[in-house]
Amino acid sequence: MFVSEKQIEIRYAETDQMGVVYHANYLVWMEIGRTQLVNDIGFNYAGLEEQGYISPVLDLSIQYKKAMRYGQVATVRTWVESHSKLKTIYGYEILHEDGSVAATATSLHTLVKKDSFRPYPLSKVDPEWDTKYLEIAKVNN
Amino acid sequence: MFVSEKQIEIRYAETDQMGVVYHANYLVWMEIGRTQLVNDIGFNYAGLEEQGYISPVLDLSIQYKKAMRYGQVATVRTWVESHSKLKTIYGYEILHEDGSVAATATSLHTLVKKDSFRPYPLSKVDPEWDTKYLEIAKVNN
Amino acid sequence: MFVSEKQIEIRYAETDQMGVVYHANYLVWMEIGRTQLVNDIGFNYAGLEEQGYISPVLDLSIQYKKAMRYGQVATVRTWVESHSKLKTIYGYEILHEDGSVAATATSLHTLVKKDSFRPYPLSKVDPEWDTKYLEIAKVNN
Amino acid sequence: MFVSEKQIEIRYAETDQMGVVYHANYLVWMEIGRTQLVNDIGFNYAGLEEQGYISPVLDLSIQYKKAMRYGQVATVRTWVESHSKLKTIYGYEILHEDGSVAATATSLHTLVKKDSFRPYPLSKVDPEWDTKYLEIAKVNN
C-alpha cells in the first residue's frame, strides 16, 4: 500500500473564533492530499480536467479527533482505500506535528465527463493510471 | 419531529472551476442550518459561546447527490436526529428549488468548555434547551 | 443616485481567531452587494455569464473601520460610482446594525468575453442595462 | 530593501466558475506573504498573538492584472513599504511562473491589544522587531 504525505502550513484564514481550524477546511486539505498522491505516482489531475473529465466527491466521512491551530504544520497522509471500475475510495489521516491524529477520513469519487456529469471509467481515459490505482489500493476489489 | 428550513442564496465565491458549488461549502450551509434550528426553537448559539461553551463537530458524513449552481437558492432542512447527555446528532437534507435532493448529511456534536475543550452536558448549561432537544429528537435515546 | 441594500447574516465560518470576521470575507459580501444591485434594477448577472460574459474585478480598495462579529447582521449598501464604455466603478458601505460603518470600499470592473478575457462594452451586450447604469451612476462620465 | 518570497501551490478550492482563482483569495495569499516576511527576518506572528497583540488590516488596495489558474504555482513577493510608530504598510507583488505580474497590492496595519482593539506601538512590544522593520522599510518615515 502506497501512502502519500503532504505538509500543510496552517493559514490564519483557516481559523475561526473557536481559535482552531474551521472544520470545513479539512476537506480542502483532503483535496490537496489527493492531488499530492496523484503527483507522487506520476499523474496529473489538472491534465485530466483539461481533457474534459472531473472527479467529484460522492460521499465523504470525517472524524475530528484533536483540533489544529494556526502556527502548526499539518501532515495529510492519503492512500487509495479501494478502486474499481467506477468508484475510487481514498483514505486519509491528518496528523499533528507530534504524530497524534487530528482527523481521519474517507471520500468516494467517480470520474465523470465535465459537460454531462456522466460517469466514465478511468480505465478508458488513462489505462496506466487505472492500473496503478489497482496496484496501490489497500483493499482489492 | 421538528424540521427547520433555511434558504441559502448561492454565492459566486462558493463555486469552483467545475462550475458548481465547491463540496466543502455544504458544511458551512449545514452550520447555518443548525443555527437556524436553534433560533427556530427559541435559543441562541452565539449566546452559549459567550457563556464559554462551544459545540465542535466530532464526526460528519455527507452524500452528494446532485450538484448546485450559482444563481440557485438552496434549502437546508435540519433536524435533531438524536440527543443524549453528551452527544447530539443532527440530520440534514439540502434541496434544489424543484425539491430534488442535492445532498444528505449527519453531524455529531458534543458541548465543551471553550478554554479546556472538556465535554460538558447541555442539561447543566441550559436545561430547557436540553429538554427541547429530547422532545424534538427523531430517535429517542 | 440609487443605493441598493442587502442584509448579510454573519456566518461562523467567516470568523477567524481574532474573534471577528476575517477581512477577505468583506470582498465576498461586496460581490453579494453587486448582485443585489443588479437584481434590484431588474437585471441578472448569472444570465450575463450564461451568454458568455464575465465581469472580473480589476482594482479594489477597502477601508476597515470597525470589526464585525458572529451573531450580527451586516448591511451592504452598493451603488454605481461611475460607469463608462469599458469601466464600471462600484461604491460600498458595510454597516453595523446600529448604522455605524464597518467598512467602505470601491471596486473597478470591466466586462470581458469568458473564453478570451477580452474587454467588451456592456452597451453592446445589453444596451438597456448600460443605459440604466449611466442613469444611476453617482458621477457621470 | 528586503523582499520576501513565498511559493503558493494554487488550490482547487481557490478557483471559481470563471475558471480562475477567486479574487478574494489573493488577500489570503498576501497574509501568507506577510507571515513569510516575518519568519524570514527571524520573528513570529503567532507568538505576538499569544502575547495578546494582533495586527488587523486597516486599509487594502489591490490591482488585478492577469488571472491565475489551478495547477499553477504563485509567487508572493512581500516587503515593508513603510513603518512608523503605529502604522506599517506592506507592499506585494503576486507573480505567475513566467515572472509576469498577476497582481500588485498594499495593505496598512496597526498593532492593537487583542482584548481592547486599542493601538499599541510595536516598539514597546518588541523593540528589535520594530528596529528591523525601520531598517528594511522601502520608504523611511
UniProtKB/TrEMBL annotation, chains A, B, C, D:
- Determine if Hydrolase is one of this entry's keywords: yes
State a single Gene Ontology molecular function.
fatty acyl-CoA hydrolase activity
The record's annotation in InterPro entries points to: 4-hydroxybenzoyl-CoA_TE, HotDog_dom_sf, YbgC/YbaW
Record key words, sorted: Hydrolase
Q: Does the keyword Kinase apply?
A: no
Hey, which family's this protein in?
A: Belongs to the 4-hydroxybenzoyl-CoA thioesterase family.
Q: What is this protein called?
A: Acyl-CoA thioesterase
The scientific name of the source species is Lysinibacillus halotolerans
The taxonomic lineage of its organism, from the top, reads: Bacteria, Bacillati, Bacillota, Bacilli, Bacillales
